[in-house]
Amino acid sequence: MKKFQSRSFMRSALYALNGLRLAFKSERNFRKHIVIAFFILSIALFLRVSVVEFCLLIFANAQVLICELFNSVFEYIVDAYYKGRWAKLAKLAKDIAAGAVLFSAVISVLIASLIFAQRFYEMYCNNFSF
What we know:
Layout: H1 9-26, H2 28-47, H3 51-82, H4 88-127
């Protein structure tokens, strides 16, 4: 057996859950994105979006959270390699990783806006038609 190979699926799952717990405790932006995702999905339930639209919202929010997790990992790796020293390449790499999070968040907002705008328009037309 290799040195760092996990012995069981359950142990691997526990390591993964521990990673999510650590991210939640240590990463402020990860917590913010979780709150926003909960808010968006709550609005979607209230507006009774279709199953497909709800799945799109879940996927978009999950994409943002996954990008945030990878951004955090990337920052930890860069920081460990440079041991707290400033380096231009490290800054560029971290900025690009943060840009990926921003890009995924903007796409997520666009998806939610399109879905919710359609629902609000339908509600408006149904309530104010003559």
